Amino acid sequence: MNRSQIEAIVLDALRMANQAREDDNQLIVAPDAPLFGDRGQLDSMGVVTLIIDVEDALRVAGHSVFLADERAMSRLQSPFKDVPALVAYIEECLKSL
């Protein structure tokens, strides 16, 4: 699975999240969108939901990964801070399979 395919999965998960949100509370769906943290647009429950949606989409694509594991939580910079960080983290997880 290449970077653009991973990014598409993440952006699709953001679009799916927007379906459950009010019009005035829509998430930014862009390759550089902030997700969590100082500039983030998601609270902790929103990140959990996004992670589950991304993991489910990866499973459908034939890749079983768990993104919210010890490796993710022990980093100095969160892999969930923005779309590029999440995509890079997913790439790393897929390489270790």
Question: What is the compact description of this entry?
Answer:
By secondary structure, the chain is an all-alpha fold. The protein is built from 4 helices and no strands. The chain has a single domain (3-95), classed as Non-ribosomal Peptide Synthetase Peptidyl Carrier Protein, Chain A (Orthogonal Bundle), CATH 1.10.1200.
How would you portray this structure in words?
The protein has 97 residues and is an all-alpha fold. The chain has a single domain, classed as Non-ribosomal Peptide Synthetase Peptidyl Carrier Protein, Chain A (Orthogonal Bundle). The chain is built from four helices and no strands. The protein has helices at residues 3-19, 44-60, 70-73, 83-95. The longest helix is centred in the N-terminal third of the chain and has 17 residues, at 3-19. The protein is globular, with a radius of gyration of 13 Å.
The assigned structural class equals: mainly alpha
Number of domains: 1
Q: What is the general shape?
A: globular
The first-to-last residue Cα distance is 12 Å
In the CATH scheme, the class would be Mainly Alpha
| Helix coverage percent | 40-55%
SS element count, helices: 4
Most strands sheet: none
CATH topology: Non-ribosomal Peptide Synthetase Peptidyl Carrier Protein, Chain A
Assigned CATH architecture: Orthogonal Bundle
